[in-house]
Amino acid sequence: MKSGVSCKLWLLVTVVVLASGCASMQPVSNYARSGDTVMLVLGGTDEGNAQVPVLKKQNMTVTITDSLGSTYAVKLRYLFRTYSDPASKYGYRASTYPGKYYETYVPPYSGEWVAVIDLADPVTGDPVPVSTGPATISVTSPDLVSFVDYSNFGWIWTNGDLSSIPIEILSGTGSSNPMNYLDSVNYDPMTALEPLPQIEVVPGGAPLTAVGGGSFTFSYQNADFGDGIRVVPTTPDPGVQLSFKSIDQGDGTSLLNVVIMNPNGFRINNNRAVGLMKGKSLFRSLGFVMTWENGTVDDTNWEASIQMINGGYVDVQGNAMPELTPAISKVY
Predict the structure, then answer these.
(1) Are 211 and 171 in a shared domain?
(2) Are residues 58 and 173 in the same domain?
(3) 66 lies in a domain?
(4) Does 36 lie in the same domain as 137?
(5) Measured between alpha carbons, how far is 72 from 84 in angstroms, rounded to an integer?
(6) What pLDDT tens digit does each residue of the chain (332 aa) get?
(7) If both were cysteines, with which of 64, 85, 127, 180 could 34 make a disulfide (CB 3.0 to 4.6 Å apart)?
(8) Among 113, 112, 139, 116, which Cα is nearest to 38's?
(9) Which of 131, 158, 193 is the last residue of a domain?
(10) 165-173/31-34 β-pairing
(11) Domain containing 257: what range?
């Protein structure tokens, strides 16, 4: 596998083989008919191609330019992220010091943003009238960059970039792949891979020493968060210990207690070091996300629906760290 700038990532309908942190610049497959479905990998998550915690469909434009130079908008059907097997070579090597393997130049615990695209008009769903022959797909977003040189060596990769992804258009007209759609009950399992609404809590400031963790208490309006709040870490870092508990107050509100910690400590930055192999965590692994479904909370009203009552961070000896303060934002 090549390091995090560009690598092929082959996806099947039911199996994802992930080389985390890499940006595949070839669709799967690399040929299709008008109307067919193709998959693209848009690049890495943390410290990668994505410049925000969560990529949004509405901030993304996908087009195809055919062999005659005509350009058409196409449908971005699904957008989701995946992570590698923690017991994979990447999972092991990316926690070691850079040098021996290419994977060690990719940030640890990174994932991939995956897009499923129909070569069809995004409004009507009709196959776009592309000409046969060599074509290119372009994916643009203010929240996404095409190229990340993790190694800083200036290495050049051969797969191109997100603004010009090669694909061969075959003759004939295809159709959107149902992706294992359960027709009898109208269930589309692929939608379950897409992000839910999220409020992220990350430490703001620069720690003076290794962080041990943090504890936080929030008050929220029960009715606004639908089926209830679930708290999850922002990275698949195996060293992170996170727990949460909601306590109904009987007045339409609940208290949410969250504890995040690593007894080995969180580093003061995101630089890779030998300590990761001994159980330490990156600084960015100190974040967590509150997520929910079927609620009424949106980007304009969320601050009226949930407030932090108290919270803060401690070092590995349990001493308060006033230089760090929780930064709370709705990221999706």
Answers:
(1) no
(2) yes
(3) yes
(4) yes
(5) 33
(6) 333 322 322 233 323 333 333 334 567 678 999 999 999 999 889 888 899 999 999 999 999 999 999 999 999 999 999 999 999 999 999 888 877 888 888 889 999 999 999 999 999 999 999 999 999 999 999 999 888 877 777 776 655 589 999 999 999 999 998 887 777 888 888 899 999 999 999 999 999 999 999 999 999 999 999 999 999 999 999 999 999 999 999 999 999 999 999 999 999 999 877 789 899 999 999 999 999 999 999 999 999 999 999 999 999 999 999 999 999 999 99
(7) 127
(8) 116
(9) 193
(10) parallel
(11) 198-330
Domain identity same for 60 and 43: yes
My answer on whether 204 and 326 are in the same domain is yes
Considering the domain architecture, whether residues 267 and 230 belong to the same structural domain is answered as: yes
Identify whether residues 159 and 246 lie together within a single domain: no
Is residue 148, in this structure, part of any structural domain at all? yes
> With contact defined as beta carbons under 8 Å apart, do 219 and 225 qualify?
no
CA end-to-end span of the chain, whole Å? 32
pTM of the complete model: 0.86
Q: For 267-305, where are the E strands, in sequence order?
A: 288-291
Considering the domain boundaries, does residue 15 fall inside one?
Answer: no
> Who contacts 124 (Cβ-Cβ below 8 Å, separation ≥6)?
none
Distance CA 71, CA 129 (A): 10
Q: Which of 59, 58, 26, 29 lies closest to 42 in space, CA to CA?
A: 26
Identity (one letter) of the amino acid at 323? E
Residue at a domain's end among 149, 169, 193: 193
Number of domains within the chain? 2
Q: What is the CATH number of the domain that holds 304?
A: 2.60.40
> Is 109:79 a contact under the CB 8 Å cutoff?
no
Q: Cβ neighbours of residue 77 under 8 Å, at least 6 residues apart? A: 37, 116, 117, 118, 176, 190
Nearest Cα to Cα of residue 256 among 242, 237, 238? 242
In whole angstroms, what is the distance from residue 34 CA to residue 15 CA? 24
Please give the structure tokens belonging to residue 110. 């990174």
Same domain, residue pair 221 and 312: yes
